[in-house]
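Z., the sequence and structure:
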Amino acid sequence: MTTVTDNPNQTTAATASRTRLVQETIRRGAVFILLASLLLLFSIAEPAFLTLSNLMSILQAVAVVAIIGAGVTVTLAIGGFDLSVGAVAASGVMAASYAMIVLGLGAGATVALVLAFGALVGAFNAFLIVRLKIPDLLATLSVMFLLTGLQLIPTAGRSISAGLILPDGSTATGKVDPAFLLIGRSSLAGIVPLPVVLMLVVAILLHVLTERTRTGRLLFAIGGNAVAARLAGANTARLKVLAYMLSGTLASLGGIIVAARVGRGDVSSGASLLMDSVAASLIGFAVLGLRRPNVLGTAVGAVFVGVLLNGLTMLNAPYYTQDFVKGAVLVGALALTYGVSRSAD
């Protein structure tokens, strides 16, 4: 009789194949695995965490970060980096409040003005980068400092609210338009906050632009090799202008939402928006293991950070530990994405 035995080479190949499959699953699902773990841990520790109202509160809290992060993601796609987004958002908060309280404009005119301001800042960033050939980080860092100081000049460093005393001694007579406040405080069907709806609209539209259109493919082509993209016929200068104008416009939209939520121009608004939006964009690299900028990944990254911070807050974790925990989890997500599958690449 002949005994049939397994071929050692086939057994080794099958084991290697299963190992690669597990590694690929972990790499592609790293963020979702960590997110599910956080949801489970926080819901066990605090049952109120998984209530609908708290989940909507989380989404509302991260909406601005996701919107601003989407703009950062577009600049990352072209191989750039917009460090001015936090300052643009903060300036948008101050500009919106100044337009209504000092200039007496209505909600519609205020929104249009602030969005135009963000687009103009984006165009100025692009001018510095494309025409003057200043490196992205240096150009946008300079604009960040410029805006941080500029937003304080019209009010001599004061926050803007009804009855503001202007530098010339006069008193502002305007007030925040109630219609403007609806942007940050109203809900769809009384359940889904309007900022969450805006976040979803921005994410879907930018996802289609970057992943499903020729323009989006060219944006990534510039980030991969700008010279090759230009030789292939892409107008790299125009696409870079588009990327930075989108980033500036979305940052100013984030500022509008913040201003509508708080109802005043707070000089300290936007302090953490830059770092949080960048964190969301970087976590986006790990979503589905794409290892590249992607808008939906940024939205997931923002939700990830929001769940983490909300859970820590509900568990009464000291505020001074939250940034450390946020950084540790970010390192973990990226390590799972890049490190676990290293041997399989």
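The first strand starts at residue 187 and ends at 188. Strands lie at 187-188, 192-193.

Let me know what you think.
H.
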